[in-house]
Amino acid sequence: MEIDIYKTAALISIATPIVLGVWFAITRKSHLSETYYQEITGSYGGFTEAIDANIGVDHGGFLLRIINIDSNGYFLGEFDFGESKTSVLSNHQFATQQMRDGIYICLGQIDHQIYTSEDRHPMKAYENRTYTGKFYVVDRLDFQFKSYNFENYIQLEYDLVHYREMKVIELKLVKTHREISQLPAEITVHKKIGLTNDVYDMVQWSAFNNFKNRYAQG
C-alpha cells in the first residue's frame, strides 16, 4: 500500500501545533502549580473563639507550620493550639493561666487551578484567588503503613480554603473520626510575613504561656 506523502505531510502539519499546544499547556500548568505550592510553606497564626466560654478564656490561638509540600499539593505540618486566662491578683499584678495547650501533627492537600491574569486587591477576599483542599489532624506519623491505611490515623477532618493574595487559610471542621482534645470548629490563620506586629507573633505571646521555651527558635 502506497503512502500518500502529501496527506501524511498535511496530517503532520495539523497535528504538530496541537501537540505543541498540549505540551505548552501541561508545562505551563506544572510551572504555575510549582510556583504556587512554594508559597504555601511557612508559619501561620490566628486567634480563635473560646471553645468553652464558661472558663473565662481571654485568648485562644492557633499556630500552624507547614513544613513541606509536594508537586501534587500534599503537605505535612504541625500546629500548636492554646487558650489562656489572665487574672488580676490582690497586689494588682497579672497572672496568666494556660487553660489549653497542645501540639498536633497535620497532613493535607490543596488543589491548584489556573486563574486569568488581572489586578487583584490583596485585602479584598472576594478578589483573591482561592484554592480548596483538605486538612487532617492525625495522631502519629510512624504508623504501620504496610498494615493500616492512612485513614485509620485521622482524628479530625477540615475543609480548607486558601486566599492566595491575603496569605490566609480558613479551616472548617467537617468530620470527627476519633475524639481527641477539643479543637476549634472554625479557624482562620494569617501567614507570618515579617511585620513588626505579625498576627503569628501576637498569637504566640497572648495565647501561650512561655511559648518561647517550647522551641529553640521561637
Give descriptors for this structure.
8-stranded antiparallel β-barrel, 20% helix, 8 strands, 2 helices, alpha+beta
Any chance you could write out the topology, listing elements then pairs?
Layout: H1 5-38, E1 42-48, E2 59-69, E3 74-88, E4 94-110, E5 130-138, E6 154-163, E7 168-176, E8 186-191, H2 199-207
Antiparallel strand pairs: 1-2, 1-8, 2-3, 3-4, 4-5, 5-6, 6-7, 7-8
Question: Can you give me a brief rundown of this structure?
Answer:
With 218 residues, the chain is an alpha+beta fold.
Question: How would you sum up this structure, described in words?
Answer:
It is a single chain. This protein has 218 residues and is an alpha+beta fold. The chain folds into 2 domains: 1-38; 41-213. It is 20% helix and 39% strand. It contains 2 helices and 8 strands. The protein has helices at 5-38, 199-207, and strands spanning 42-48, 59-69, 74-88, 94-110, 130-138, 154-163, 168-176, 186-191. An 8-stranded antiparallel β-barrel has the order 1-2-3-4-5-6-7-8. Strand 6 and strand 7 form a beta hairpin. The longest helix has 34 residues, at 5-38. The mean pLDDT is 82.
